[in-house]
Amino acid sequence: MFLQNYWYVAAEAFEVSRQPVPRIILGEPVVLYRTEAGAPVALEDRCCHQRAPLHRGKLEGDNIRCGYHGLVFDQTGVCTEIPEQDHVPPQARVRAYPSAEKHGWVWVWMGDCALADESLIPDFHLNTDAEWTSFQGIIEMGGASQLMVDNLLDLSHLPFLHAANIGSATDTDPELNVEKGEDFVRVTRIARGIKSSKWQNDLGIQGNVTQEKMITFRPPCHIWIAIATAEEAGPKGNGQVMNQMILNSMTPVSATSCRYHWGFARDFNHGDAGVTKYMKDATDIAFNEDKEMIEAQQKNIDLDPAAPIFNLDGDEGGVAARRLMQRLNAEQA
Amino acid sequence: MTAETLLRNCWYAAARADEVTPDAPFARTMLGEPIVLFRRMDGAIAALEDRCPHRKAPLSLGRIWDGKIQCNYHGARFNGDKAGAAARKIVAQLLAQGNARAAE
């Protein structure tokens, strides 16, 4: 059901420390911690003895000791000590997941370890690029990762769900183009001469804007949204373009929930902490509107999974992403 | 008892009459089905499936406008009456007070 041979975001880098933290990724319990040298470790968060979660234990050097009966596991998952017996059976081990820290996030490879190649980690470098100013956030969502993919590939929801902040009331007639690749779906959405949003007004943009958004989905759950905004007239007008990149990765927790890691990078008001705070607060509000809607959708889906949906013009990208995921799932099976 | 075994061809109390207004949608789950209630311009009660046929967003998160309800996700708008409703009409009707009119 889940695509296994991929890198998934398990945490923001700051969340992984010398204090073990639990995650559920693709329905599997994973414990994350750092070695003394600072490298991330991801182990099965379930002791091989009686299934106690290892995250309730303690680190000893680079190893973790289960908090129930004291079994010790090294960072490769091998049990190295059982306190009440001398013999450590060779099957006493937990699964170790390949992990890596890149672009401000800790990644875990959920599939065949032999295929884990760090060069396959998706390019989210704008999270940490010194030429851009960025901030990040995390939202635990009680809705399927796919619902967030639908959400981000179809931004026709902005004038409604986000009317009070990032949406423009007149952004209802865009030029849409959908490109369907072997391993990506890209939606280009151009809105010309639309009313600026509340969010843009607060950042000093008045009047109308033209906005081009390029939204790229890559399996299993990654989306990049590049947004170029040009003011038609006004202090920041005259052809000046503001660029933003929204980085999104929606790691499935279960079939009906996900952990949404996002980043927001910009090339304007570089390093301005006041603008960053404003944008972070506004983004938190807007993304929580998405959370509320997606959780409400999921409840309706759970109530009657067979109730039909229908597709609008704006869903071409989301439908293409679903088909791509179905194809990859069939190939994996 | 599952939702399938509940009696359908009968009237159920869905709300107190004063809970159903022209200003804000009112959500109920009845017989396992999500239902949104509101009042149309003429004061009649509308009871619709609380599930947008597009992506299943609850219409009750939306707004009432001119007696119509607008989904807050992608803006689809539904009449509260039989003729214009794109949403499938639901079985549940109202018996809020003796004089309350049903949705049909």
What do the pLDDT scores of chain B average to? Answer: 78
Query: With helices defined by DSSP (H or I, 4 residues minimum), what is the helix count of chain B?
Result: 0
Uncertain stretches of chain A: none
Give the full name of the CATH homologous superfamily of the largest domain in chain A: Naphthalene 1,2-dioxygenase Alpha Subunit, Chain A, domain 1
Short description:
The complex is a heterodimer of chains A (about 325) and B (about 100). Chain A is of the alpha+beta class.
Topology (SSEs and partners):
The complex is a heterodimer of chains A (333) and B (104).
Chain A: E1 7-12, E2 21-25, E3 28-34, E4 40-44, E5 58-60, E6 63-65, E7 72-73, E8 79-81, E9 96-97, E10 99-102, E11 105-109, E12 133-141, H1 145-153, H2 158-161, E13 175-180, E14 185-195, H3 198-202, E15 208-218, E16 222-231, E17 241-254, E18 257-266, H4 273-303, H5 316-332
Antiparallel strand pairs in A: 1-11, 2-3, 3-4, 4-9, 5-6, 6-7, 7-8, 10-11, 12-18, 13-14, 14-15, 15-16, 16-17, 17-18
Helix pairs in contact in A: 1-5
Chain B: E1 26-30, E2 33-39, E3 45-49, E4 63-65, E5 68-70, E6 77-79
Antiparallel strand pairs in B: 1-2, 2-3, 4-5, 5-6
Question: Explain this structure to me?
Answer:
The complex is a heterodimer of chains A (333) and B (104). Chain A has 333 residues and is of the alpha+beta class. Chain A has helices spanning 145-153, 158-161, 198-202, 273-303, 316-332, and strands at residues 7-12, 21-25, 28-34, 40-44, 58-60, 63-65, 72-73, 79-81, 96-97, 99-102, 105-109, 133-141, 175-180, 185-195, 208-218, 222-231, 241-254, 257-266. The model of chain A has no long low-confidence stretch (mean pLDDT 95). Chain A folds into two domains: 7-117, Rieske Iron-sulfur Protein (3-layer Sandwich), CATH 2.102.10.10; 125-332, Naphthalene 1,2-dioxygenase Alpha Subunit, Chain A, domain 1 (Alpha-Beta Complex). Chain A starts with 6 loop residues before the first strand and ends with a helix. In chain A, strands 12-18-17-16-15-14-13 form a seven-stranded antiparallel β-sheet. A four-stranded antiparallel β-sheet of chain A has the order 2-3-4-9, with no helix packed on it. A four-stranded antiparallel β-sheet of chain A has the order 5-6-7-8, with no helix packed on it. Chain B has 104 residues and is an all-beta fold. Chain B has a single domain (3-79), classed as 3-layer Sandwich (Rieske Iron-sulfur Protein), CATH 2.102.10. In chain B, 0% of the residues lie in helices and 25% in strands. Chain B has a three-stranded antiparallel β-sheet, with no helix packed on it. In chain B, strands 4-5-6 form a three-stranded antiparallel β-sheet, with no helix packed on it. In chain B, a hairpin with a 2-residue loop joins strand 4 (63-65) and strand 5. Chain B starts with 25 loop residues before the first strand and ends in a 25-residue tail after the last strand. The model of chain B is unreliable at 83-104 (pLDDT under 50). The chains are: A alpha+beta (333), B mainly beta (104). The interface between A and B is medium-sized, with 24 and 19 residues.
